[in-house]
Specification:
- The chain has about 270 residues and is of the alpha/beta class.
- The chain folds into 2 domains: about 120 residues, Cobalt-precorrin-4 Transmethylase, domain 1; about 120 residues, 2-Layer Sandwich (Methyltransferase, Cobalt-precorrin-4 Transmethylase, Domain 2).
- It is about 35% helix and about 20% strand.
- The termini are far apart.
């Protein structure tokens, strides 16, 4: 007899770090979930404030370059195992659930096991970075479009792709790329992006730990020669970076209150 699956899985984005940036729908689902499987980029204050008291919390963080972290296969197995036990499972991801995320693997597994699911979007990291640094990704007279990429040791772009990126006037955003910033800048320069193109690296955006580092394509290798950027970090390349000094508004003090609350309950 075919097993009847009574569990449900909610795939949700928890936003870029500031706990006030979660959606109302996620807040409701946090209060309903029996099991919360959280990645390492989720602000724990979100779970502390909104999860029901008897919820099981599983921290299943994946971390690039760290073989000791959870694999996607292990995370997917946890989701399926708990859902098949009839539980409401909330898979909580930093940023948005499907923006540079492995949600497809999880969706495929849920369909294979005939488990019902719901997807709740979240504010992706680049939206948080743009807002909290005063760098609009598109702005009249600066950029008409924006391109999103990830550049790491597993990335491969053809010469034609690099030529297209380098010769574009678009704002370029690179996820998961700060460890490879020297190689990234070298490739953009090789394919004729202007050497004085502004570049920003933003660490842990929207949180009390937010740090912004401004340079140019030609200078960033020297400027950041001994810098180890904290994860998550995001890179913005383009003239819109020039707007930061005029429109920056967020400081660590803006986020200090809510993060101090978390420290008080540890």
């Amino acid at each position: 007899m075919k097993q009847k699956h009574t569990g449900k899985v909610i795939l949700a984005g928890a936003g870029p770090g500031d706990p006030d940036l979660i959606t109302v729908k996620l807040q409701k689902r946090l209060a309903e979930a029996d099991v919360i499987i959280s990645d390492r980029l989720v602000n724990p204050l979100i779970i502390y404030e909104y999860a029901k008291k008897d919820a099981q919390i599983i921290h299943a963080g994946k971390h690039g370059y760290n073989t000791a972290s959870f694999s996607q296969e292990q995370v997917t197995a946890l989701i399926i195992e708990n859902a098949l036990e009839g539980k409401t499972v909330l898979r909580l991801k930093g940023g948005d659930v499907a923006f540079f995320s492995n949600v497809l693997d999880e969706l495929i597994a849920l369909k294979q096991h005939e488990i019902s699911f719901e997807i709740i979007p979240g504010i992706t990291a680049v939206s948080g970075v743009s807002a909290y640094t005063g760098i609009p990704l598109t702005a009249r007279g600066y950029s008409k479009a924006v391109q999103f990429n990830a550049f790491n040791t597993n990335s491969y772009f053809s010469a034609e792709k690099w030529k297209q990126l380098a010769n574009s006037n678009d704002t370029l955003v690179f996820y998961m790329s700060s460890k490879n910033i020297s190689h990234l800048s070298e490739l953009l320069l090789r394919f004729a992006r202007h050497p004085n193109t502004p570049l920003a690296v933003i660490e842990q955006a929207t949180t009390i730990h937010q740090q912004i580092h401004i340079s140019t394509l030609k200078d960033c290798v020297i400027d950041f020669i001994s810098k180890q950027f904290s994860s998550p970090s995001l890179i913005i390349v383009g003239d819109v970076v020039k707007l930061h000094n005029d429109f920056k508004w967020f400081t660590c003090n803006e986020a200090g209150t809510v993060f101090n609350e978390l420290e008080n309950v540890k």
